[in-house]
Amino acid sequence: RRQRQMCIRDRLSSKQQMKLEYEQLKTEKLQNSYNALMGQINPHFFFNSLNGLNALIQSGEKQQTLAYLDELSNVFRYILQSNKKELVTLAEELQFVKAYTYLLSVRYEGKLFFSIQADTPYLLWYLPILSVLPLIENAVKHNVISKQYPLQIDIYTTHEDKLIISNKIHPKSEDSKGSGIGLKNLWGRYRMLTGKDIQISNRKEYFCLLYTSPSPRD
């Protein structure tokens, strides 16, 4: 009987050890995905943002300068805090997206446009932090943005519990085509944190990414 109890304890100990190792591997994989995500954020964005702020200051546009500075602070704050969070509400993510896209809209005035529409019930749904940013970065990086070819990026929810990010494709050149690593990392992070998949459609005219929203937290 004593030997049997020892065997049971050993099995329980083994299961606990396996669980701890699994959680450790999961944490390490998430950290690697996060590091990869941070590496994808266009480093020139911050430099360009500061240049944009400098241009506004020199132009004497006081109100727009203050608004720009507020949104730039919001962007920095959100990114700096992102390594402390895994999941955020759609409301939080879209608040960041609105600040981020405001800066881009000032930089590409009259050439870059955003439409962000989310039905109220979906604002409490959760998704991995900084899930939308890489898609905006990719669209800006790989597409022509000009008066002749303005870029429109649409972000919206559907009644089928989906979050969609899409834009019309007008590629800069063949050599600007990405490796797809960023989307693969995003898919892996979303899959690990929510247990669900994202769907990517890269057709001739439109690029579209669809998130299946996880259930709200209790």
Put the structure in a nutshell.
The protein is α+β, with helices and mostly antiparallel strands. It is built from 6 helices and 7 strands; from the N terminus they run αααβαββαββαββ.
Descriptive keywords:
about 20% strand; two-stranded antiparallel sheet; five-stranded mixed β-sheet; about 220 residues; alpha+beta
Question: In terms of topology, how is this protein built?
Answer:
Blueprint: H1 2-40, H2 43-59, H3 62-81, E1 87-89, H4 90-107, E2 112-117, E3 126-128, H5 133-142, E4 151-158, E5 162-168, H6 181-194, E6 198-202, E7 206-212
Parallel strand pairs: 2-4
Antiparallel strand pairs: 1-3, 4-5, 5-7, 6-7
Helix pairs in contact: 1-6, 2-3, 3-4
What would your notes on this structure say?
With 218 residues, the chain is an alpha+beta fold. Helices cover 54% and strands 18% of the residues. The protein has helices at 2-40, 43-59, 62-81, 90-107, 133-142, 181-194; strands at residues 87-89, 112-117, 126-128, 151-158, 162-168, 198-202, 206-212. The strands form two sheets. The protein has a five-stranded mixed β-sheet with strand order 2-4-5-7-6. A two-stranded antiparallel sheet has the order 1-3. A hairpin with a 3-residue loop joins strand 4 and strand 5 (162-168). It is globular, with a radius of gyration of 21 Å. The model has no long low-confidence stretch (mean pLDDT 78).
